[in-house]
């Protein structure tokens, strides 16, 4: 990494940490104001807007700090991780946001998912980032489907939404820092454009793969794989081998897939871009 890049990341980390303290202080003062008596409806509304703005700023700082840490090559703390537990924990964290947008969460996780080796917090962050986007860019009363399936050498997670979809020209760029799709304004959803970039870096550092499938008006599916415990990656893309056997594949790694199925999610679509990403539990359906 270039010296200027390293210095830039160090400055970013210092600035980020210095900003967190005053933001927390301002949040505390606003919350004290909210506890006061005789607030007008307008004052309550303005306090709510101020807190929402501060929360967005805090989330941006956290994302920038995480990005700086990953790009500086910080050592990861690998341990045995139960991906089934991480999926359900991430769903718990986004449940309130899904209810607010009237989005159903449907999940299916294989019973024999097994253990993967990785940093628990970061793997949870990948799942959380994908779920947050799937809810944020979904339509009201839409659905998010989550599946975690057991493959011979890796575990695969798919997060599919019924949202607006991503234009084909934008798809090669979705994992780039600060990139937002040209049609993102349709959902009026705010975002930093860092969530997918962070997810990509985390998956790469776990020797996995992350990719997307999307079509305008039909929604998007983000998928990623993590090698199974004690299975070292040999650098081969497990999905490219499927394409080669079918006589397909090109430099952009476009994929071919029939309609996405939670139970059979192994075919991959033309509109898939890859980078080197109500609850239904088991076979029963549990809608939240």
Give an account of the 3D structure.
With 288 residues, the chain is α+β, with helices and mostly antiparallel strands. 41% of the residues lie in helices and 17% in strands. Helix 2 runs parallel beside helix 5, helix 3 runs parallel beside helix 4 and helix 4 packs antiparallel against helix 5. The radius of gyration is 20 Å and the shape is globular. The C terminus is likely disordered.
What is the fold's blueprint, element by element?
Blueprint: H1 3-34, H2 41-71, E1 79-82, H3 83-100, E2 104-109, E3 115-118, H4 120-136, E4 143-150, E5 154-161, H5 195-205, E6 209-215, E7 219-227, H6 238-245, E8 272-275
Parallel strand pairs: 2-4
Antiparallel strand pairs: 1-3, 4-5, 5-7, 6-7, 6-8
Helix pairs in contact: 1-2, 2-5, 3-4, 4-5
Search tags:
single chain, 288 residues, Heat Shock Protein 90, 2 domains, 6-stranded mixed β-sheet
| Cα-to-Cα separation, first versus last residue | 46 Å
- Class by SSE composition: alpha+beta
What is the CATH architecture assignment of the largest domain?
2-Layer Sandwich
SSE order in H/E notation?
A: HHEHEEHEEHEEHE
- Strand content is 15-25%
Residue-averaged pLDDT: 76
According to CATH, what is the class of the largest domain?
Answer: Alpha Beta
Compute the CA-based radius of gyration: 20 Å
């Amino acid at each position: 990494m270039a010296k200027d890049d390293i210095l830039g990341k160090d400055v970013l980390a210092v600035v980020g940490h210095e900003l967190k303290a005053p933001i927390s202080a301002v949040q505390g003062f606003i919350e004290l104001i909210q506890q006061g008596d005789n607030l007008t409806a307008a004052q309550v509304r303005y306090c709510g807007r101020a807190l929402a703005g501060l929360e967005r700023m805090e989330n941006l700082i956290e994302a920038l700090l995480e990005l700086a840490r990953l790009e500086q090559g910080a050592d990861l703390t690998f341990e045995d991780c139960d991906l089934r537990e991480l999926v359900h924990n991430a769903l718990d964290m986004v449940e309130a946001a899904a209810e607010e947008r009237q989005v159903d969460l449907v999940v299916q996780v294989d019973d024999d998912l097994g253990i993967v080796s990785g940093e628990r917090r970061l793997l949870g962050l990948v799942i959380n980032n994908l779920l947050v986007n799937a809810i944020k860019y979904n339509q009201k009363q839409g659905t998010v489907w989550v599946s975690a399936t057991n493959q011979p050498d890796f575990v695969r997670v798919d997060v599919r939404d019924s949202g607006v979809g991503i234009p084909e020209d934008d798809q090669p760029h979705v994992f780039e820092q600060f990139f937002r799709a040209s049609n993102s304004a349709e959902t009026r959803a705010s975002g930093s454009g860092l969530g997918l970039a962070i997810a990509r870096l985390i998956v790469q550092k776990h020797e996995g793969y992350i990719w997307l499938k999307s079509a305008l008006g039909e929604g998007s599916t983000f998928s990623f794989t993590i090698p199974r415990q004690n299975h070292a990656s040999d650098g081969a893309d497990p999905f490219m081998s499927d394409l080669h056997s079918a006589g397909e594949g090109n430099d952009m790694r476009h994929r071919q897939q029939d309609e996405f199925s939670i139970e059979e999610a192994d075919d991959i679509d033309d509109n898939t871009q890859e980078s080197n990403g109500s609850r239904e539990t088991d076979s029963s359906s549990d809608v939240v």
